[in-house]
Write a structure and sequence with these properties.
The protein has helices spanning about 5-15, 35, 40-55, 70-80, 135-145; strands at about 20, 30, 60-65, 85-90, 95-105, 105-115, 125-130, 150-160, 175-180. The protein is an alpha/beta fold. It has a seven-stranded mixed beta sheet with strand order 5-6-4-3-7-8-9, sandwiched between helices. Bound molecules: adenosine monophosphate (AMP).
């Protein structure tokens, strides 16, 4: 397992994640990862790093949080040849769901997972999202994985806003590629 990021990756992330001020409301500095996604070198170097870290974790599934967690999660799942499971905002999943309310840095919402998301008890799951702020959504996602009888091996974020101490709110292990 290699968790230390290279200078190259660190530079690419810092250069390609854009700060958008006062979005979605005044006072929030939004870390925009669309500029990272559109840079093939940055995106691919990041995915290489994640693949290298997680290929020894013996994962069964990667669970991505709606919506930016889907982008990283689905590609990583394909690279690791494991299943991908979406955790979605309330009302979006078509079959029977478990639900969990959560709070954002800028509001409240509810997340859901399909009740039959995993094909076995204690499936080994990696949770992934683009960013952890307060940790509210990731904590809700952790409980949903538990409700669906999965085991969350680790939660992974591309960016962690360290001052908000969101990772302290999670029950399980946390890995953040870049702490800001
Ligand atoms: P939280 O539940 O407070 O940890 O918020 C994390 C979720 O909200 C993630 O899905 C992020 O994509 C989004 N989010 C919260 N704050 C920001 C921010 N400053 N920049 C970008 N995304 C954010």
């Amino acid at each position: 397992m290699n968790s230390k990021i290279s200078k190259k990756l660190e530079t690419l992330l810092l250069k390609n994640i854009r700060d958008v001020y006062d979005f979605p409301k005044k006072g929030i500095i939004f870390k925009d990862i669309t500029t990272l996604l559109s840079n093939p070198e940055a995106f691919s170097t990041l995915l290489d790093h994640l693949e290298n870290r997680y290929n020894t974790f013996d994962l069964d599934y990667i669970v991505g949080i709606d919506a930016r967690g889907f982008i990283f999660g689905a590609i990583l799942a394909d690279r690791l040849k494991v299943g991908f499971v979406p955790i979605r905002k309330k009302g979006k999943l078509p079959s029977e769901t478990f639900g969990q309310k959560y709070s954002l840095e800028y509001g409240y919402d509810e997340l859901e997972i399909h009740k039959d998301a995993f094909n076995k008890k204690n499936a080994r799951v990696l949770l992934i999202d683009d960013l952890i702020a307060t940790g509210g959504s990731a904590k809700a996602a952790e409980s949903l994985i538990k409700k669906a009888c999965g085991f969350c091996v680790e939660s992974c974020f591309i960016v962690e806003l360290e001052d908000l101490k969101g990772s302290d709110n999670l029950d399980g292990r946390v890995y953040s590629v870049l702490k800001i």
